[in-house]
Amino acid sequence: MADPTPGAQVVSRVSRVLKVVAEHPGGVSAAAVAHATGLTRPTAHRLLTSLAAEGFVDHDPGAARWFLGPELYLLGSLAADRYDVTEAARESVRALAAETGESAFFSARRGSETVCLVREEGSFPIRSFVLYEGVRFPLGVASAGLALLSYLPDDEIDAYLAGSPLEERWGLQHSASAVRERIALTRETGYAVNPALVLEGSWGMGAAVFDAAGRPGWALSLTGVESRFRPDRQAELGRLLLEHAHRVTARLRGGSPSHR
């Protein structure tokens, strides 16, 4: 059956390619793009070449790597006036890193994914490198995505878990029942905990930030090694995350962070 929207498949493919390139600030090969998007290598290379001709990606022939291009920077600059929310969160991200010594992050929800927008390194010398600007995870995966998913309405959670093969990609710990257990715990404490489910030894905690309608749209999170996220410290880290999540929510709503 023909696609009812002419060109929709091409747009979808281009979007997937750009997202993969964005997840690799150090550049990515055409073969890696093909693997990540499920496209054939010739198709991936053809799309990358076409995007390069328009300035949306850059190619380093010597390294055989592709990067985001200058045209995206220009378009992003124009869109920033309407969509950039990072300034409302940057102060809290820096404060969380300074107060805890861990790496702190601000992520946004985009459909069924989270996208890391801001990263600030803490002072603790051993770090986790699971999160960095541009990386995406499905909702329910990593602490930011779990925090966001936990505060969606129950019917939206049900529909998402029924249609998302998290277990297939991320293992048994991301089965629908396992995710639901973590959602229940997140709702009980107010903050999400990722006990090294994405990368062995790398723990994370996150708290949702809400929009003017009360829906979870962003999240603050911390990541680090397991020894820094022992149960006796989680309560303090959770308190700080919730405190700053409230502040960012108030800033995004244009209100005072001192009023709940």
From TrEMBL:
Domain named HTH iclR-type: residues: 8-70
GO MF assignments: DNA binding; DNA-binding transcription factor activity
Pfam families, sorted: HTH_IclR, IclR_C
Any one of the GO BP annotations: negative regulation of DNA-templated transcription
Keywords: DNA-binding, Transcription, Transcription regulation
Occurrences of domain IclR-ED (ranges): 71-254
Annotated PROSITE patterns: HTH_ICLR, ICLR_ED
Transmembrane intervals: none
The protein's name: Transcriptional regulator, IclR family
